[in-house]
């Protein structure tokens, strides 16, 4: 079940006049890390500000593919906020979302804001630390098709890690 805040006033005047955007913001996050703390607070604040926000509330079971509705919501969002957390790269679903978001940035002019939540931008960009460990797991026993997907994930992480964003560390 996805949550969407209904917008009474547009986030930006172009938001309501431009029919290609159904949402002002798409939130990409790793549920187990941030769903019940940072992301839920961010969503509530966006909702209070009448910013129409898509937040996926479903926990993806292991092995499932990203839902077409989720890809559509990414395409229909004017802005994507990516909450990079310690285990973001553990989730193939998050990484697939990220690839789609970076495609939409390039092809549709989607605005992308990364939030580095208890990780440094260089860990994301260069895939070291917990990100490097997760990629070693993804790469173990990867066939040619999976290797291509892993390279897409790496490219998307490099591009997102290069973006100006927000870094949130312990206190």
UniProtKB/TrEMBL annotation:
Keyword annotations: Cytoplasm, Hydrolase, NAD, Nucleus, Receptor
Taxonomic superkingdom: Eukaryota
EC number: 3.2.2.6
GO cellular component: cytoplasm; nucleus
Main location: cytoplasm
Localisation: Cytoplasm; Nucleus
GO terms for biological process, alphabetical: defense response to fungus; positive regulation of programmed cell death; signal transduction
Source organism of this protein record: Vitis vinifera
Family matches, as Gene3D superfamilies: Toll/interleukin-1 receptor homology (TIR) domain
UniProt entry tagged with the keyword Hydrolase: yes
InterPro entries per record: TIR_dom (IPR000157), Toll_tir_struct_dom_sf (IPR035897)
Catalytic activity: NAD(+) + H2O = ADP-D-ribose + nicotinamide + H(+)
Domain TIR positions: 21-171
One annotated GO molecular function: NAD+ nucleosidase activity, cyclic ADP-ribose generating
The protein's name: ADP-ribosyl cyclase/cyclic ADP-ribose hydrolase
PANTHER family, A to Z: TIR DOMAIN-CONTAINING PROTEIN (PTHR32009:SF39), TMV RESISTANCE PROTEIN N-LIKE (PTHR32009)
Family: Belongs to the disease resistance TIR-NB-LRR family.
Gene: TIR_7
